[in-house]
């Protein structure tokens, strides 16, 4: 039974712990993004707020996709999708990407254990997290992006090109890669504090 007082806002029930979209990036666009990978620009991933690699929580290589005019098409597509998704489900106050998009590579043995993308410090402005699956599911084993929803562990779709969007306060992980390599783009849409 709902006991509603009128605080002036309509109640909506569209929340989902994560949602996914397919077909926004064409295969040749994904291949183009993959060609940006440049070993000389990669860094061992750090966990935000700590500044140094924490191998117990995370092991992967990352580089950033420069926000330059040639790459605007990637940023624009993702921003449009985030806005669409936000208007449909979350109604968060959003401002934009406050960090460049991250290109991630998980090789055999790499992983990112349970965490939130949201927390104290600079990451407290994060509202929506986005992952793009850049690898074919048969290119790697393990490497599942998973969410903990109550006590259930749910795996996100792996198909190349799938974009998974979730509130940055949802707990998630990437399981260890047991074979092959998985690549992804990760982006965070930020906004003013929750109110
Ligand atoms: O690679 C992914 O799909 C997600 C990685 C992740 O959770 C993160 O970078 O915060
Ligand atoms: Fe994350």
Automatic annotation (TrEMBL):
<dbReference type="GO" id="GO:0031418">
    <property type="term" value="F:L-ascorbic acid binding"/>
</dbReference>
<dbReference type="Pfam" id="PF13640">
    <property type="entry name" value="2OG-FeII_Oxy_3"/>
</dbReference>
<dbReference type="GO" id="GO:0016706">
    <property type="term" value="F:2-oxoglutarate-dependent dioxygenase activity"/>
</dbReference>
<keyword id="KW-0223">Dioxygenase</keyword>
<dbReference type="GO" id="GO:0006974">
    <property type="term" value="P:DNA damage response"/>
</dbReference>
<dbReference type="InterPro" id="IPR006620">
    <property type="entry name" value="Pro_4_hyd_alph"/>
</dbReference>
<dbReference type="InterPro" id="IPR005123">
    <property type="entry name" value="Oxoglu/Fe-dep_dioxygenase_dom"/>
</dbReference>
<dbReference type="GO" id="GO:0005506">
    <property type="term" value="F:iron ion binding"/>
</dbReference>
<keyword id="KW-0560">Oxidoreductase</keyword>
<keyword id="KW-0847">Vitamin C</keyword>
<feature type="domain" description="Fe2OG dioxygenase">
    <location>
        <begin position="96"/>
        <end position="191"/>
    </location>
</feature>
<dbReference type="InterPro" id="IPR023550">
    <property type="entry name" value="PKHD_hydroxylase"/>
</dbReference>
<protein>
    <submittedName>
        <fullName>PKHD-type hydroxylase</fullName>
    </submittedName>
</protein>
<dbReference type="GO" id="GO:0006879">
    <property type="term" value="P:intracellular iron ion homeostasis"/>
</dbReference>
<keyword id="KW-0479">Metal-binding</keyword>
<keyword id="KW-0408">Iron</keyword>
<dbReference type="InterPro" id="IPR044862">
    <property type="entry name" value="Pro_4_hyd_alph_FE2OG_OXY"/>
</dbReference>
């Amino acid at each position: 039974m709902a006991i509603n007082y009128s605080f002036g806002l309509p109640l909506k029930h569209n929340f989902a712990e994560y949602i996914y979209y397919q077909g926004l990036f064409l295969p040749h666009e994904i291949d183009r993004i993959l060609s940006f990978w440049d070993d000389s620009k990669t860094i061992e991933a750090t966990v935000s707020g700590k500044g140094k690699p924490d191998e117990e929580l995370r092991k992967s290589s990352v580089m950033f996709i420069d926000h330059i005019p040639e790459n605007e098409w990637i940023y624009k597509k993702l921003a449009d999708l985030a806005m669409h998704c936000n208007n449909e489900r979350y109604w968060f106050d959003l401002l934009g990407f406050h960090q460049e998009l991250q290109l991630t590579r998980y090789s055999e043995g790499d992983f990112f254990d349970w965490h939130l993308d949201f927390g104290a410090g600079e990451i407290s402005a994060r509202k929506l997290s986005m992952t793009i699956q850049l690898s074919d599911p048969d290119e790697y084993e393990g490497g599942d992006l998973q969410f903990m929803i109550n006590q259930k562990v749910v795996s996100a779709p792996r198909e190349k090109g799938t974009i998974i969007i979730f509130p940055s306060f949802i707990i998630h992980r990437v399981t260890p890669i047991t074979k092959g390599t998985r690549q992804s783009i990760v982006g965070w849409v930020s906004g003013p504090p929750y109110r």
